[in-house]
Amino acid sequence: MKIIDGLKWRYATKYFNKEKKVSKEDISILKEAVNLTASSYGLQPYKVIVISDPKIRESLKEASWGQSQITDASHLFLFCNNLNVTDVDIDNYIQLRAKINNLNPEDSKEYADMMKSNIGSLPPEILSAWTARQCYIALGTLLAASSEMEIDSCPMEGFDNNKYDEILGLKEKGLSSAVLCAIGYRDDKDSFASLKKVRKSISDVFEEI
Ligand SMILES: Cc1cc2nc3c(=O)[nH]c(=O)nc-3n(C[C@H](O)[C@H](O)[C@H](O)COP(=O)(O)O)c2cc1C
Q1: Mutate which of 11, 16, 139, 154 to test ligand 1's pocket (most atoms within 8 Å of Cβ)?
Q2: Which residue ranges make up each domain of the chain?
Q3: Span 69-103, pLDDT tens digits
Q4: 3-86+123-205: CATH homologous superfamily?
């Protein structure tokens, strides 16, 4: 589908068809699309947990105000932001960048030091808010990619982050749940599918100077 057609076709799916699963191949494509997302400095300070296990999803549903997408969608993509970004993370990024582009990592020392100084000076809550913002950019890519593939989605932040972190043991991994996206195929009974898009006019949202 063309980009605008896909974005018009997609909607925040409320009821998923429980029987229809997204294929392994399509999940791989979605993962690759998410992985190609831009991130600040290119650091990708997050992990994306793809959840299909029905038992885990049952317990997550209780922590998501009972929203049916949690158990009925084919998969959940849970975007978890890093609680910390260390000098080692930055060095690892510089090494990877050097390896992929055949560069000398020493040539990027000034750049690495600048990142370390900028990121290292952030108080923990500001750092965590910044890494969470990176998750939302990745969420946008997932929404656009899935619509292009005619795979339905529901972006969701209607859940108890602390409970999610507890259920999935995220804090121990230095992570926190930021936002999630249910992926699958709409159920025929989802009347939200036929509602028209509610958006401000282009001139309300944009200003040209
Ligand atoms: C970050 C974010 C969080 C959202 N959380 C929920 C949610 O918890 N449950 C839900 O049903 N919809 C949720 N939505 C869907 C929005 O309500 C929906 O995207 C918006 O009304 C626009 O409608 P459309 O996506 O169908 O075009 C969320 C959307 C975003 C972007």
Answers
A1: 154
A2: 3-86+123-205
A3: 999 999 999 999 999 999 999 999 999 999 999 99
A4: NADH Oxidase (3.40.109.10)
Q: Is 11 strand, coil or helix?
A: coil
Which residues share a beta bridge with 181?
Answer: 77, 155
Taking the complete model, does pTM exceed 0.90, yes or no? yes
Residue 46, classed as helix, strand or coil, is strand
Instruction: State how far the Cα of 156 lies from the Cα of 139, in Å rounded to an integer.
Output: 10
- Rounded to 5 degrees, φ, ψ at 58 are -60, -45
Closest CA to 177 of 145, 136, 124, 120: 136
pLDDT in tens, 146-178: 999 999 999 999 999 999 999 999 999 999 999
What residue has token string 């990176």? 134
Q: Are 60 and 51 in contact (CB under 8 A)?
A: yes
- In tens, the pLDDT along 188-202 reads 999 999 999 999 999
Closest approach atom of ligand 1 to CA 192: 26
